[in-house]
Every structure is written in C-alpha cells, then in structure tokens.
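Predict the assembly for these two chains.
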Amino acid sequence: MVQFSLPILCNQIVTGVVLGMILVLLASGLSLILGMMSLINFAHGAFYMVGAYLCYYLASQTGNFWVALILAAVVAGLVGIVTEIFLLRPVSEGDLSLPLLLTFGLVYVFQDVIRMLFGLVGKGVGTPSLFSGAYIWGSLIMPKYRLFIIICGAVIPFLLWLFMKKTNLGLIIRASTLDSGMVEMLGIEPKRIRTLVFGIGITLAGFAGALVAPIRGVNPEMGGDILIESFIVVIVGGIGSIKGPFIGGLIIGILISLASLFYGEAANIVIYFFMAIILLVKPRGLFGVEGLLE
Amino acid sequence: MKEEKKKGFLKRMTRRNFLKTAGVVGGSFALGVGSGGLFGNRFSARAAAPIEIKIGALLPLSGPYGIEGVWAQKSGELIAARYNREGRAKVTFLARDDKATPGVAIARARELVENDKVDWLTGTLAGHTALSVNQVSRETKVPYMCITQSDQIMTPGEWHKYMFHLSQTNHMISHAVASYTSENLGKKWYILIADYAWGQANLMGFHAAAKAFGAQVIGEDKHPLGTTDYSTYIPKIVAAKPEVLLLSQYGRDEVNALKQFHEYGLKKMMHIVNIVSGLPIMKEMDQEVFEGTYSGIHFYWGLQDKIASAKRVVAHIMKEAGHPPSSLCVMTYGGVIEIVEGILRAGTKDPEAVIKGMEGHKFDNFRGPEYWRKCDHQAIHNYFIVKGKSPKAVKGEWDFAEVVGQHGGEKAFKSCKELGLST
C-alpha cells in the first residue's frame, strides 16, 4: 500500500493549486456579476462550455490554439453582451426571480444549441505543442500546460483588480454598484455599466472554458458540476471582492486534492462541509464586501 | 374434326400469343405462385400473414449518454425494418427516453407495457435503469431482453425467468480484463474506480481476479462519479509504482481521466487499462490520448475482420446509419434478433413457449458463437480487449483501436450454483 510522505503531500498541494486556479478564473467572473449586478448567473457554466466549444471550433479552423484561446474568450464575451442587452435587461426591472429563471433557462438553450451545431459526441482539443509534456522534479510531476494555467490564474485576477481599482471605468463600476442613482445623475447610464460588467464576467467564463479544453473533455454538459464548485468558491471567498474568489479557489482546490489523498470518495463532499463551516463562522465569506446582497 | 381443332389452335397461337402465354406461365413460376421461386418466400409469407411483434426499448435518448441511446435506437429500427422488408415478421421497435434515470425508466417501461402493449422489453445503457425495467418485467410477465452489464440483475433477489441477459456481468468483464492484464501487462496493480454501484461491483471483480491470477493490488482509490479533474489522484498512483493502473470508468469520467493521465505522462510509467470503453467515448478523445491504453469492450467494429457475423452487422449499420456500430448498437440489434427469432421458432408470442425455446439455444448474431445458459438465461459469450492505435496508424474517421484479446466462455462467468440461480 502507498506510504504517505512529505513529497506526496507537496505533490498533492501543487495539484490542488492548479485545480484551484481553474476555479479562480471561473469564479472571478461569477463573483463580479453577482457582486456588481446582484445577479445569480446560473448560465455561467453554460458560457464556460460555450468558450470551450468556441476554442475547439476556432482551433480546428485556424490551426492555432493561441488564436482560438483569445478569440473564444472575446466571442463568448460578445455573446454575453448580446444576452444582457436583449434578454436580461428587459427583465432586470421586474421581479428578482425573473433574471434568475432566465439564466437557468439559458443553460438548456445553450446546451441544445451546442448539440445541434456540434452533435452529441463530445470534442477533444489537443494541448498546444509549446506546452506539451511535463517537468519532472524528483517525485513532482508538473505538466507544462498546467503551469501555464497557474500563470493565467494568477495574472488575470490581478489584471481585473488593477482594472477595478486603478481605472476610471473600474471606479464607475464600483460606484454604480453602491449607488446607481448617483452615477446616473452624473450622466452615466447604469444599464451600460451592467452590460459591461456582464460582458467582462462572461469573457472570463469563456476564457476559463477555452483554457481547460485541452485537459478536460469538451461536451455540452461540462458546465454543470464546475458551476456548483464555482458557487462554493464565491461563497467561501466572499461576494464583491476580487481576492475572495482567488483565495477561495485556492482553498477549495487544495481541499479537494488533500481529500483525494486521504479519502478519495469524500473529495466532493468535503468542500460542502467547509462551505457550511465558513458560513457559520463568517456569513459573508472570507473577504465578502459588507452591504452586497444583504 | 380433331385436325381442324388442332389447326385452329395452331392458327390462333400466333407468335405474339405464344409469348404472352409463356410470359404468364413463366412469370407465375418465377414469382412462386405455384411452387415457390425467386420471390417464393415473400409470397408464401404474404399468404400467411407475418407475426406482429412489438418491442419496447428503454434507452438514454438525451443527456450525457444521449449519443449512445440515439445510435442504439437507430440500430433497433434498422433490424426491425429488415424483418419487415423480408416479410418474416412485422416488427415494431418503439424507443423511449429513460434519461438514464431509474424513476423515468420504470414509468416509461410501464407505459410501453400498458399503453403500447409491447410483447418484449429491451434496453438499457445503465445497470440501475435495467433493474427498474426488470422490475416491470417481473410484475407484468412481459419478457425483458437486458442489454446492459449488471451483476445485481443476476442475483436471486432480482433475477426472474422472464429476463434474458445478453450483456456481461461485472464479474465477467473484470475477470476478462484482469486475465488479459495479468498475462500480458503485469501483476502489480493500482485500481481507480468511480465510486458507485457499478464501480464497486467491478472493484470486487478485480480483487477476485487478482486472487485467481496471482496479481497484487498495491493500492486503490475511489473517486466520485462525474469527477472532472483526476490530477489529485496522480501523485499517490505514481508513488505506488504499479505496473498497471486498472480503471473502472465509463463515459466522461474515462475521457477526463485518460486526458489527464496522458498529460502527466503516466503512460510512460505504467500500462493503463480501463474495464470498458465505447466508440462514442473514443471519438471524444484525441487519438494521442487514447494511444497505447487498453480497454475492455463489448464490441468493437474492427471485429469484422475476425468474425463473419460482426462483418454483416457492421456493413448493415454502416450503410444505413453512416457510422460503425457502438457496443449498445449491436446489443440492441442483436437483442431484437434474439427476440424475433425466438418467437418465430416458437411460432407463437406466448412468453412461456418462447422462453422454453430460447433456453440453451445457440446463436451467432454479432460477436461470434454464443448460447443462452438454461439455468439463468445468461448469454455465454466473449468479451474483447482493444488497444488504442497510434495517430499515425489510424485509417479513417472511426479507426481508433485494434483488438488484441478476448476472453469468455463458461469460465468467465459465475456458475448458476455460485449465483444461487436456477430455472
């Protein structure tokens, strides 16, 4: 039987960090939309799936994974903007449950559209040659592509933080969240801000989907499970902050990884327990912004 | 007078009249009006109306396994159409979406029996839905051709005489895969299974096979069904240094796991053997990922090079559906054949007579010679092992693997005594 040792434990933590970074990317967009628009976007996983399919399609058309990765995120973001303007905006003034139900319905719409366009069989996206293979340091194996994911998971939330904290547009978005009436009086249409926020959030979801396409199966149902994990990340990290999903994602990734080491069957359950404990101790999550969704 | 009559007859028998008469007489014989001929069977069958048979199939026509169900439905319809075309029986194949959910399967199966008045039930893809259909069959005494693998359905609590099990048991497939593995790949195993009834049953089978073949299980892990990232199981597996990583996964679990094991370079460190795979699953993977991995499989279309019946089925489905058959396709197809032929042999749809005629019957519909074991209605047959081809060796859209082994016969199945079953 396997002896637990320090190298195995270190390996496990590293694999957990990679897993966490994928969740960070998806949860960042989810948290942004939830915090800034007060919208629980059930379709976030579906947009993640759309990003993965766009990556597959564009990579097969252009033969270039990197072009596909960027374009997939951009096109997913545009789909998000169109969705916000034509579907979410008309129902945003009414009952709070309407946007919720709409995004729930969109999951099925996107899945079926993808099935019609790409068929029922899932698709495979190859790892880009630049990052194929793995680094091996002693007993630690680190696939090159996962290293790239770690870099993306660290850089993108940082860029998002810079955008939100250091640019005028970021300031307007934050102000709009706290007092949209005041922002409107200053001549800025809150509707446009909502569209922008939704577009950014969906771009991140699309990027996450495209990014994981080489390491996970691309299929119409791929957004389902990861959406739940992303919600847990947002709840644990706290709504409205950027470091919330980042720290939350890392914690959840490492927790799943360590649970796999000691008791594989519990790998999924342990994160729900952890979320329950966090909610009991810190109801807003670790870095939740006061006043949001309260 | 006679001469006149004869002359008159000859006079009337002009060249045109002769050709007309010859045409009618010859045509009648050719069409088999009298004694049969080129189309004799067809016309004789018309004379005695063909027996009408309604078969109700429970298949996952939507959701993650939708592709399997849709393909299987098409295969069932194709073989039904062939019978209808030949005129030997009038077969109606009704497929219903069980959504791979037991509750839905039981409701749809009841509808098929009560509303559509089907003569036989068949399906499903998943073991737990098969148990639901089996329950309806036991209650209504409408026979059930079970085409999915299950250990549980062959236990005294579930088994009944109206059920025929065309597919394998978990014990059989784990025995087959373990047999090939221990003989060809190594005897130091690490086992990773999806943690649900199917995986647990396979795990038991692997442990039993390890004892039987003198292999050593040096580690095992269970992952939740639907896990998307297997990287967290890899450090432990690598540290254990097994010769073989035995997997019990199917569908998206298999795709994700193999992708990530490839990514981490596990194929260079150990052999990877999955207990079961399927054509749509192989299609979802890059060939680079599937290359060099081993899988058990109910049926692979490449068997057409070795088995004549496989060649016939592959040609029929390929021509009509545009793709080679998956395992569930041929199970559905072969199940319909066994139902219809059983009824035709018995000359009646009465389940008691049909069942009696099927017990012990030998047949070869798609995977080589097999037979229905009388004591438990298990089809005694072979299970196959395939190895993923290198991308360079692939020829065409559906060429993913080569058949490298097969294992089966009575020795691969538990005996009726071991199962506690007997008709």
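The mean pLDDT of chain B is 89. Residues 301 and 370 of chain B are 18 Å apart (CA to CA).
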